[in-house]
Amino acid sequence: MLTKLVDWLDERIRVKSLWKVMTERPIPGGSSWFYVLGATLAFIFVLQLTTGIFLAMYYAPTPDHAYASVKYIQEEAAFGGIVRGIHHWGATFMMVIVALHMLRVFVFGAYKKPREPVWLIGVGLITIVGGFAFTGYLLPWDQKAYWATVVGTNVAGTVPVAGGLLLRIVRGGDELGAFALSRFFAIHTYILPWTLALLAGLHIYILERAGAGGLWNAAQKVPDKSEPLFPNQIFKDSLFILLVFILLLSFALFAPAPLEPQADPTDTTYNPRPEWYFYFVFQMLRIFEGRFEVIGTVVIPNIVIFLLLLIPFLDRRPERSPRKRPFMMTAAAAAVIIVSALTIAGARAPIVGAPAVTSPSVLAGRVVFAKSGCVACHSIQGKGGTVGPDLTRVGSRRDAPWLARFLADPKAVNPGTIMPKPDITDQERQDLVNYLAGLK
Amino acid sequence: MIRAIVAVFAFIGAVLAIPLGGFGVLPVLKRKEPGWSDAGSYRDLPAGEPQERRFFEIVKKGWQEEKVERAVWLVRRLDGSVTVFSPSCPHLGCGYRWIPEEDRFKCPCHISVFDISGKVLGGPAPRPLDTLQARVEGNKVFVKFEVFQVGTSKKMVA
What we know:
The structure holds two protein chains of two kinds. By secondary structure, chain A is mainly alpha-helical. Chain A has two domains: 2-274 and 294-334, Cytochrome Bc1 Complex, Chain C, CATH 1.20.810; 356-437, Cytochrome Bc1 Complex, Chain D, domain 2 (Orthogonal Bundle). Helices cover 64% and strands 2% of the residues of chain A. In chain A, the strands form two sheets. Chain A has a two-stranded antiparallel ribbon with strand order 1-2. In chain A, strands 3-4 form a two-stranded antiparallel sheet. In chain A, strand 3 and strand 4 (383-384) form a beta hairpin. The longest helix of chain A has 33 residues, at 178-210. The radius of gyration of chain A is 27 Å and the shape is elongated. Chain B is α+β, with helices and mostly antiparallel strands. In chain B, 18% of the residues lie in helices and 36% in strands. In chain B, the strands form two sheets. In chain B, strands 1-10-9-4-3-2 form a six-stranded antiparallel sheet, with no helix packed on it. The longest helix of chain B is centred in the first third of the chain and has 28 residues, at 2-29. Chain B is elongated, with a radius of gyration of 22 Å. Chain B starts with a helix and ends in a 14-residue tail after the last strand. Chain A binds chain B through residues 47, 50-51, 54, 57-58, 60, 65, 68-69, 71-72, 76-80, 82-83, 86, 231-232, 234-235, 238-239, 241-242, 245, 249, and chain B through 1-2, 4-5, 8-9, 11-12, 15-16, 18-20, 22-24, 26-27, 62-64.
């Protein structure tokens, strides 16, 4: 049946020769587990496209509804948490595997003639993957999204001369708002996927034209050691993809994608942190301060991208064995060590006013405080009413049990108080107590 | 080996199809029991003469609570009870109207004709006008608004 269909198609559109072109690309030195990363990236991209399209069925890219729609996807819609989980963890996997893929190509010297164009496009692809991650996490419009994007877009503002204009264009105005969200959504869901698909297609196609690099010493070995892509390499690719898929699914099932409280532009207690794979950039901004900031935000990232683009032209010796390229291997090791060190330092960056942000309950309590009209009478850090006591340091005067009793029934604790009994649920009261007790 | 490769991707596809299919379809299949909406005063209803009433129903769609404008036909019977008709013709869903001179409901699309009790007197309508649940409380009429499938001889919630 299948053979008949293939024959029928072959007679008309010559599918057999197409299959040959696609699968008979020789790999010098034979198939290897080292070469599975590129195919895995293609797979994750398809996975991200699919889950992304489904998420778009319920997501609303406006500040009034974005958070509610993501909360609906995460908590109410059937399988929503899993689909969002795959998309969230898929992004993390993509970032990690894209870095490993580049490192592998670098160590194997595969960027050398005739594959320089493949490498150049690869560098472009990496910046696109980074752009995906950055534009993607504004979309839930939660605290992390909002604040990480405020900081991230301010980076554009540090560009000399054109910074102000650039910032307005990236943000869609002077503040993060409706235009920022809708343009991030457009970039994330229309511009970047098409660009990535086209460039990735080109990346694979010109690799086909230039020929795979394979193992560095394949030329010295028996030449017949060369092996076509199909079946052994594609088999290895498939098994590794299966492993990644199972791992990704486990993350989606057992580590739900986080969703913090809704974005609050007036919040002064929140400690903005990017996703962990951007910690190295975050840390760089902490190293270069004041007028040197532009070095961390603009100069170094551009030099890095420029250097990556130059690699195949700086290192033109045909020698590909890592053992005979000590300088390049040292550079690669140094890059890995620097990025890891910056990432670790970024992760351990001190949190300012720690108790106010460490637990989700405290964050939720802050929202309860803002929503329940407390600010009509009480002020915190100078904002709010003056009828009731100032609560800026209430945690140092009253402990949590007292606050809990008082908020449950103010008059039972202090018969003379004019404080009305708050109309909140037990959970909300608990969150509010945790928030207030942390104000010291 | 090609079988193993096909099996891997068939497996991944099948495993993905469950959450993706469920996520794409189940939330929109979920039916919510409609709530009671205030359709205005009871005393102002003329006996034996259908009256069109508009009101807002609070509809919760996933994350969005919307005020949706609804129109219904109210008929106060001579015994004082109230019959409420859905505003869509059961033939293909056009908005029909009451023609007082003829004492008939008529649909402008394919000229289905109904009497004041909703019975089909002519035209292609496959079933009588759809009634909605209603109750009178004090001077207020409350209606449970629902949408029914059109074109069928049986009345079914859409």
